[in-house]
Amino acid sequence: MTSREEWGGSAAEARAPALAWLARELARAEAWDEGIEAARNACVAGASLAAGAIVAAAYYDNPLTGAPALRECIERVGPLPLTLETWREALAPRPHPAFDGHPVSPGFGFLGPGREGVFFAALSRWVERTPSAPRSRFLLAQRAALEPLTGALNAAGLAAFACLDCGLDGDAAERCFLLFKLESALDEAQKAQRAGLRAIPFNGIRYVYEGTLPAPRARDRQALLRRLGLDEGLDHA
Amino acid sequence: MPEPAPPEMAGEAGQSAPERPELRSSAGIAVLGSQVAVHGLDLHADCLQLGFVHYLLFCVTGRRFDPVVARALEELWVSTGYPDARIWCNRVAGYLGSARVDPALALAASLAATNSVAYGFQALHRAYRVQASLPEPLREREAWLVTVFAERRVLYGYGRPVHGHDERIDVALEVLARAGLPAGPALRRAFWLERRLHQRKGLEMNIAAVFAAIAIDFGLDAREFDAFMLLELTPGYMAVYAEQRRRPPFEFLRGWHSDVGPSPAPE
């Protein structure tokens, strides 16, 4: 059965409320990340919303917390029996080329300080509202044993577990994740578009240049204008 | 001359092959395994010495330019490839490099963000329209300016949001002077307008006006200008992107939020 067929009929109807819940969870401000800021930057100088969509789609294609991580998480967890040892083995961090060979567990880690519990909390809410969520329930039950190995659940991980519980395959889950993440990003991009450059001022951050700063080279504007025939006398030519 | 396209292949006995869609082009053809033609020239024989910017100019316009002109345009490009991560489109590259997004997507995203009005490609496009609308006869030009003031029109290419003085203008003038290229009529009109705006409103021109005027003097029309200028900021994006790829992931402005208004309330 293709993912398109899976989306059809009553299965899709049954899934719709669950996916709407996932969309709302990913849209919560506490679930936001720097993809939101990237999308705001895309539109703050007056580019169209399409620029925000392109930037956000690119951001959420990142291999560490984006769609590739979601897919890999689904691939690793999807076929597993609910036993701790198989999960420990499947979710053990592996060297990741995008992280210079450092070990990564897809769907886990890379959260900012103080945000480690955000997506586990969301997964708890998911389990509360979803009677049949075997993988999510198992992850939460084994959190104490798995989190030291994997790191904290991130947005891609939350989406991976929710989509697995819904019976979505990797293709469908990737589409959902991108669309849901773009929803908030585009909303914020439009706000930035309306706010304009004052929202993201050039000098609004403390910029520390760590390189060498050569002495500035002075140029004589008036001499250059004369040399090119652009001096004042042209007004009356 | 390029090889003729392979003949239509006959189908199985008694069956005609499905009709292939026709695509007409004079821009070029890749005769794979043999040669490539670009606007009638042999890419691998006639174009390699052009340099990348001149080749792009040729691809966009179908015309070869005086190498001195092409080199001057290349220097103007270099002069505006700013690798400062605070610039809005470079910040996009910074976020994407930090997140380890593939460089092609990061470049496409940065280009998309640069298609903006306050700065960037839309600003350049509008600056070109301003320069192209300036009449040459002085009397008509004065009348044009009276109308502009009366209608309170925004003159793209004049004024600069962050800092009123654009350091690239002197560089552009120096590029032209060093190349031995005198100012053309469009550039003279551009400076005439700056003097008027400076007298009346204290506004200086920005580099978009200079680029647009030089392009007009060099014979680029509006569409050619739009298409040609697209890669001028690429070095800046890629400098920021590459640096962030070297730094730990997600460090770029982590946790910083711009002020665009209230966030959605929690449910």
Overall description:
The complex is a heterodimer of chains A (237) and B (267). Chain A has 237 residues and is mostly helical. In chain A, helix 5 runs antiparallel to helix 11 (170-195) and helix 6 runs parallel beside helix 9 (143-150). In chain A, strands 1-2 form a two-stranded antiparallel ribbon. In chain A, 59% of the residues lie in helices and 2% in strands. Chain B is mainly alpha-helical and 267 residues long. Chain B has helices at residues 43-46, 52-61, 67-78, 88-98, 103-113, 120-133, 138-150, 168-179, 185-201, 207-217, 222-228, 234-246; strands spanning 28-31, 35-38, 41-42. A three-stranded antiparallel β-sheet of chain B has the order 1-2-3. In chain B, helix 3 packs antiparallel against helix 8 and helix 4 packs antiparallel against helix 5 (103-113). The radius of gyration of chain B is 23 Å and the shape is globular. The termini of chain B are far apart.
Q: How large is the share of residues in beta strands of chain A?
A: under 5%
Low-confidence stretches of chain A: 1-8
- How many strands in all of chain A? 2
Largest sheet of chain A: 2 strands, antiparallel
- Strand line-up of the largest beta sheet of chain B: 1-2-3
Q: Report the order of strands and helices of chain B.
A: EEEHHHHHHHHHHHH
Mean pLDDT of chain B: 92
Q: Strand percentage of chain B, roughly?
A: under 5%
Q: In what order do the strands lie side by side in the largest sheet of chain A?
A: 1-2
Number of helices of chain A: 12
Question: What general outline of chain A do the C-alpha atoms trace?
Answer: elongated
Q: Strand tally of chain B, please?
A: 3
Morphology of chain B: globular
